[in-house]
Amino acid sequence: MPIEKIILHMPHNKIIFNTAIPASLAGKRLDQALSALFPEYSRAKLQEWIKAGYVKVENKILISRNKVFAGQKIEIIAEITIQETAEPQQIALNIIYEDNDIIVVNKPVGLIVHPGAGQKANTLLNALLYHAPELAKLPRAGIIHRIDKDTSGLLIIAKNLEAHTKLVAAMQERKIKREYEAVVYGEIAAGSTIDAPIGRHRIKRTAMAVTDAGKPAITHFRILEHFRDFTYIKLNLETGRTHQIRVHMAHIHHPIVGDQTYSKLKIPKNSSEELQNYLHHFKRQALHAKKLTLVHPKNNKILEFEAPLPSDMVELLSILRKS
């Protein structure tokens, strides 16, 4: 069943959602179900809302460990306070588009999106807080979705609570289309769909893996160009799991070139010296968030953005075409 989120009221310091528990989350703990429905909010934040009584299930206040069932109505009326304690930093941003409601940026390789345990500064969030200080009032400074540190490409940021709420709902309802391009190992004959659940790796806890206990994950891809021992592909996400494209491509034995987590360096036999040298020095996944299509949260116009391939991927493709 589709997840329905309705904006009921939007005072300056509240966010209000109505939704229902889908069959796929039946029997889960309340905090687990909310984490799946609202991945843009941390588990700790959702548990805080539950404890504060901001979450009602069938008009009753439950605790985090209570189980929920398919079709149950959930209402969230949450107080929004300043979420970010990160310091604003003057970091250059490649802004593709900006108006009063949204920002679209082209994130470079190497820039972490959000501060974490090992990185408190020099992130996209720090840069956004400097560029637009009002973003401090929004969850995750208005960042709706993430891409990995060593993936380049497009990200959308909400500039106010109304835009944030609508974009979060659109992302959950799969109305924001994200298109990626990648270079993978091996020769793939034709495009396909990968439908395989993704969860935390049972041994390597910083990595993800295809696992029966994971969350549903669907990736569509088609061929852009064939090379000897490599394939250039276009991918569309139907879901947005952590490392989804990287995990799915490794799962079908066509990992992304340069991926330091889900593949090992492979130098094909009879490859040119130029290609060998370039592969040795290509230390990030050859993955780029190329295209973003969405409905503007205020004027309902369809917006489409594209970001050109970064220079390292352009050069990699050039070398492959000569090899």
The CATH class of the largest domain is identified as Alpha Beta
Quote the distance from N terminus to C terminus: 49 Å
Succession of helices and strands: EHHEEEEEHEHEEEEEEHHEEH
How many separate helices? 7
Largest sheet: 9 strands, mixed
Second rung of CATH, namely the architecture of the largest domain: 2-Layer Sandwich
Helix content: 10-25%
Please render the helix and strand layout as text.
Elements lengths: L13 E7 L9 H8 L5 H10 L2 E3 L2 E2 L11 E7 L15 E4 L3 E6 L16 H8 L20 E7 L2 H12 L4 E9 L6 E4 L2 E3 L7 E3 L7 E10 L2 E8 L6 H8 L21 H9 L5 E9 L6 E5 L4 H12 L1
Parallel strand pairs: 7-14
Antiparallel strand pairs: 1-4, 2-3, 2-4, 5-6, 6-7, 8-13, 8-14, 9-12, 10-11, 12-13, 14-15
Explain what the structure shows.
With 323 residues, the protein is of the alpha+beta class. The chain folds into 3 domains: 66 residues, Structural Genomics Hypothetical 15.5 Kd Protein In mrcA-pckA Intergenic Region, Chain A; 91 residues, Pseudouridine synthase (2-Layer Sandwich), CATH 3.30.2350; 121 residues, 2-Layer Sandwich (Pseudouridine synthase). The protein is built from 7 helices and 15 strands. The strands form 3 sheets. Strands 5, 6, 7, 8, 9, 12, 13, 14 and 15 form a 9-stranded mixed sheet that branches. A 4-stranded antiparallel sheet has the order 1-4-2-3. A hairpin with a 6-residue loop joins β14 and β15.
